[in-house]
Amino acid sequence: MSQAHGGTGRRADGVVERFVPVNGKPCRVWEKGEGRPLCYLAGIGGLPNWTPFLDRLAAGRRVIAPSLPGFPGSEGHDQLDSHLDWLMASRDLLEAAGLRGGDLIGSSMAGALAADVAALWPEMVRKLVLVAPFGLFDEADPIADIWAQKPGATAGLVCADPENFKRAQVQPAGMDPADWVIVQVRVNEALARIFWPVGDTRLARRLGHIRQPVLLLWGDRDKVVPRSYARRFAEGIAGPSRTVVIADAGHLAELDQPEAVAAAILEFAA
Amino acid sequence: MKQMWFHLMPYKELPDDFREKHPSVWVDIDSKLFDPARVHVFYNEFMDELEYAAEMGFDAVCVNEHHSNGYGLMASPNLIASSLARRTKNAAICVMGNSLALYNPPTRVAEEFAMIDCISGGRLIAGFPVGTPMDTCYAYGQNPSSLRQRYHEAHDIVIKAWTTPEPFAFNGRFNQLRYVNTLPRPVQKPHPPVWIPGGGSIETWQWCAEMDYVYSYLSYYGYKVGLDTMLGFWREMDRLGKDRNPYRAGFLQFVGVAETRAEALKLYKEPAEYFYGRCLHVDARWANPPGYVTEATIRAKAVSQIQLATQAALRGGKTASDWADIVDQGYVIVGSPDEVAAQLRKVAVDLNVGHLMLLLQYGNMRSDVAKHNTRLFAEKVYPQLRDLFDNEWEDRWWPQPLPERQSAARHAASARVGA
User: A interface mutation test: which of B140, B145, B288, B305 has the most A CBs within 10 A?
Assistant: First the structure.
């Protein structure tokens, strides 16, 4: 992968890029905007490109988007074996990115990690936003198998409008095509490494340790994590929680409805 | 050359409209298609066929492991192999093999293989596949990202369990075992020959070379498609400074023998179409669990996209499932004994393969037809090929059974005399 791993650079779109070490491997941190930190951990597909959703958030807050190991711009997923390994890596990454005391958004699969960080290291997270998080599994109402999909089917599964996922996943400008193939494969592998086969990290046992205010966001057309999970999260979380359903949005609601999702978050985390 | 008789143990009564009505032969196949009373009959026929092949003089009988699979009913090849160890005398027992990462703890493989080696008096070939995505990641729920790391650690445990005389502790990345002391240890020393069934990944070739293991390319698509892979394997052996001993390699080939080519074409059409039509009907959803294929292999493939496209075009853009294409493209070699022998000789020489694994039962082939195929092959093809390579090369990867004087049969005989 041809990218600089040292120093800080401001891109043309105003996003500041830097790399922080996690377990000795470089992980990419993107940042934009001013104010109290608002961290975003992307889920399925990761964050190969800056998105309109983050721009909307950055209008009101200092948005920090760290990329987990194996996610676009980051390495080191293949040395993480246990859930504890992943939690420590998530904590270290968020710490190095500058979250401490700010607010944390975890989307989709990364929502499970964000929830654990809030439960285990409460001093790091002031308010928590979970967008259709993974971490639980109900055999009677199972989460979709996002890996066992026919080629090309993922976009329609994770977004209400498949074009929204495809737009988020265009080959980044200047990236070698062969490298781009690897970036896409690697983020899928990293997610599988944490969540294979059903996505249950036994988070249910730790929801009672989340005492922060929590905003649960769910696309009304989520085909991945059933709505019944929102109730299970709300019941399990010790702190005050509110569930907001986003109209015309799929599993990755922030890609389908960046405006509505950002507005709900900025209001909650004001 | 070694000629080995391989069974997949397919369910033989999948419906005619299987492809249209069912998404996949593997993983989520409808269990209601399987009648256990018929499976009872099939298992017994299949084991008869394997025993028959051993009686007819094939060098080995081969079994393998699949899960939730309509064409491979051997969830546990070791169960079949242990029976074969009792019911055969001289044939090698080739278990091709145990998917190491699926056994917890992996010492289970060391134990069961050692048991088969002891029961058979040292006739075991120990195959260690990673396993297909369908078997390992879906049917058995293993994590595709750590599968290969677990596989390699399990391999290390098994080899150490076989070769270390004292009990030892193993503190691995995925396995922690305070006391490893596998009993029995295998008859063969330092351990049974290890064969690695693989696809075309360069890492597997390098590992086989490093460990001095047999690389076995188990493709259902015959020698024409297999040629590129095997040439790649030998190029890599050249690069690594290894000799071109054909016994470094194994290759799978479907065969149908009859008195005449016309008869063979008639006899094997239906079972071949059943296999290539119904048995290989695997849903594309299972093809690519993330991490199963390594980044290095993906990179290599990204570079050779054009090459792959060319190959696909040669195959008409898809795999064949009707008889004329199946024969034409070499998936199945059919003909009279002399024709088959001539073709197989060419395959063995072109691919430089000393271990030929032959599928003489496939699809819904009737048992009497499978035995006919087996007998004709044994009597009229086998003798034409047995000496190939042997003047020039030694097979260092073949089982070394106990000498006759130490065999259980000899022991029983002398006990009777003594009584």
Answer: B145
As a whole number, mean pLDDT of residues B323-330 equals: 94
Residue B137: its chain A contacts at CB < 8 A?
196-197
Digit-coded pLDDT (tens) for B369-417:
999 999 999 999 999 999 999 999 999 999 999 998 898 888 888 887 6
The single residue listed with the structure tokens 């399987």 is: B34
DSSP run (H or E) holding B138: none
pLDDT digits (tens, 9 = 90+) for A57-112: 999 899 999 999 999 999 999 999 999 999 999 999 999 999 989 999 999 999 99
Which residue in B52, B48, B58 sits closest to B9, CA to CA?
Answer: B48
Q: What are the two backbone dihedrals, phi and then psi, of residue A125, each rounded to the nearest 5 degrees?
A: -120, 120
Q: Which of A81, A182, A192 sits opposite B289 (nearest CB)?
A: A192
Specify the amino acid at residue A78: D
* Residues 187-206 in A contacting B (C-alpha not used; CB under 8 Å): 188-193, 196-197
- Rounded to the nearest 10 degrees, the angle between the axes of helix A177-195 and helix B295-303 is 150
Tokens standing for A237?
Answer: 């979380």
Burial class of residue B318, CB neighbours in 10 A (0-12, 13-18, 19+): exposed
Strands B214-217 and A62-66 turn out to be unpaired
What local confidence, expressed as pLDDT, does residue A3 receive?
46
Contacts 24+ apart (CB under 8 A), A53-58: A53/A254, A53/A255, A53/A258, A53/A261, A53/A262, A54/A30, A56/A258, A56/A259, A56/A262, A56/A263, A57/A33, A57/A262, A57/A265, A57/A266, A58/A32, A58/A33
Q: Min CA distance, A248 vs chain B (Å)?
A: 27
The answer to whether the beta carbons of residues B245 and B2 sit under 8 Å apart is no
Contact list in A for residue B291 (CB cut-off 8 A) is 188-189, 192-193
Q: How confident is the model at residue A151 (pLDDT cuts 50, 70, 90)?
A: confident
Q: Tell me if B401 sits within 8 A of B392, measured CB to CB.
A: no
Query: Is residue B308 over pLDDT 80?
Result: no
- pTM, 2 dp: 0.94
CB-CB under 8 Å, A181 with B298: yes
**What's the pLDDT at A6?**
54
Asked whether the beta carbons of B44 and B253 are under 8 A apart, the reply is no
How high is the pLDDT of residue B419? 52
* Percent of chain A scoring above 70 in pLDDT: 97
Strand partners, B171: B176
What ipTM does the predicted assembly reach?
0.93
Element (H, E) at B341: helix B337-351
Give, in order, the Cα–Cα distances in Å from A211 to each of A41, A230, A241, B343: 20, 17, 9, 74
Mean pLDDT confidence for B149-159: 98
Distance from CA of A148 to the nearest CA of B (A): 5
Strand pairing class (A25-32; B355-359): unpaired
- Contact state of B295 with A186 under an 8 Å Cβ cutoff: yes
Cβ separation A192–B284 shorter than 8 A? no
Identify the closest residue of chain A to B146 by CA–CA distance: A193
Q: Using CB atoms within 10 A of its CB, is residue B133 exposed (0-12), middle (13-18) or buried (19+)?
A: buried
CB contact under 8 A, B290 and A191: yes
- Residue A1 confidence (pLDDT): 40
d(CA B203, CA B357): 23
Half-sphere exposure of B367 (CA within 13 A, CB side): 14
Partners of residue B153 in chain A, C-beta under 8 Å: none
Report the percent of chain B where pLDDT is more than 70: 95
Ramachandran assignment for B88, one of left (phi > 0), alpha (psi -120 to 50 degrees), beta (any other): beta
Residue B315 has pLDDT above 80, yes or no: no
CA torsion, ordered A184, A185, A191, A197, to nearest 10 deg: 140
